[in-house]
Here is the input.
Amino acid sequence: MAPPSVLTPRALDFPRWYQEVVAKAELAEGGPVRGTMVIRPYGYAIWERIQAELDHRIKALGAKNAYFPLLIPESFLRREAEHVEGFSPELAVVTHGGGKALEEPVVIRPTSETIINASFARWIQSHRDLPLMVNQWANVVRWELRPRLFLRTTEFLWHEAHTAHASAEEAAALARRVVRQVYQDLCEEILGIPVLVGRKTQRERFAGASATWTCEAMMGDGKALQMATSHELGQNFAKVFDITFSDESGERRLVWQTSWGASTRLMGALVMAHGDDAGLRLPPPVAPVQVVVLVARAGEGVAEAAHQLTQDLERAGVRAQLDDRPEPSFGRRVVDWELKGVPLRVELGPRDLAEGRAVVVRRDQAGKASLPLGQLASEVPALLDQVHQGLRAAAAEHLAGRTRRVEDLAGVLAAAREGFAAVPLDALGDEGETALNAEGVTVRLVRRPDGQLPADEDPPAALEAVCARAY
RNA sequence: CGGGGAGUGGCGCAGCGGUAGCGCACCUGCUUUGGGUGCAGGAGGUCGGGGGUUCAAAUCCCCCCUCCCCGACCA
Here is the structure.
């Protein structure tokens, strides 16, 4: 029984496969304005789980949620030279309101550093007000020329956290801690996607930052995707927004800041990192439906048994859904649930029922198993964990298998056709980076060869650059 | 903004002078149901907009609009 081809195989045309999965799994579709996105209920349910996990980690670090306006005075953006320069090409500017031309145009936030820092300047007076850590869940708009659902859309959803500290060391330490404790942890433990962590090169860093930290993951086609970033802003914004505090000795000083964010792009990562030719494969922690109980064929007592089983699973704390619809055929329903990435499928028909068993199929591997009905509810949580570990292991193997250590530019270019290339930083240099960029390859991050984050005092000879084609 | 394409039912496409069709999806009925069942019937389109040529334009010509693909930035 070869699975019917419902999708373009990944090997044939990966981008097309991606679009088809997003559409057929009912994750999202394009909005009426180019670059905008409608996130459908099934897709949004996944996002809500990611959101909850992120929110939890952000708060654990000490940040509190707040909300700042969508509309920002254009003059705010202008205050930080590098910041405006970085964002001006992708700004959406509102020139009219209330039927009249506005005296000062307002921009729709591309990020909220400026408007949040305007508040910080008022809120921070004393060293006792520090550290100040604020997070917001919001939509932002960056006019995109080449949009792709979830990966690059004109409007997207994200969280952005902004912090202010009394010392450079404290801010720097936080920016690094965030990469590991918030983002890497989320990606690996919840999304099941292994990531590399490191620092962005000067040309890849955020507009207005003194350093940018990143988590990079490898997608199914070997290309890199930036999962989240954390920025050390130094005193750049503090200077232009005059964010000062009186320290213990009464001296007036500028704060040191960070900002960090992760977006709905993570949804795209989920699709591209775990998906296979049958569709989405969702890690159980974010799957809206963890187990679907499928009536394979109607028969005496089957519907009742399936219903009971679903209830038992729910009582065991599993997100279970019963599919006893008579209408689409069994095969069709199977294909649909596979497309949607449901981690576990339980099939129940008269034959199984007669034996007091049910067929269990894991989405992360081929093959079926049969389990006694009475044991299912207690076994499923462990099975879900196995699916999660299975997906993680497959993604980790893929990353390891397509990452090569190389010694020079030619080696980078060769390796980047398949995946990631780790090259000694001093073998690359700024000219090397330019040469790579001309070939469509970018430096994703700089790190220590053992995978640790680089320290400020590390000489280039002690570091490596990980290069790849990227989304 | 430079180069290349395309606009025809919800989606994907064919038709390229004689007044609109196919696949998928949708609706109804029967038949099926353990890996996208099969059959029959049905609904749905001022063929992107405007102008022109012609007895006759989705089709040919002109203008406009929009969208998509490839080259410079970004979560």
Q: What stands out?
A: The first strand of chain A starts at residue 28 and ends at 30. Residues 373-401 of chain A form the longest helix (29 residues). The mean pLDDT of chain A is 92. The radius of gyration of chain A is 25 Å.
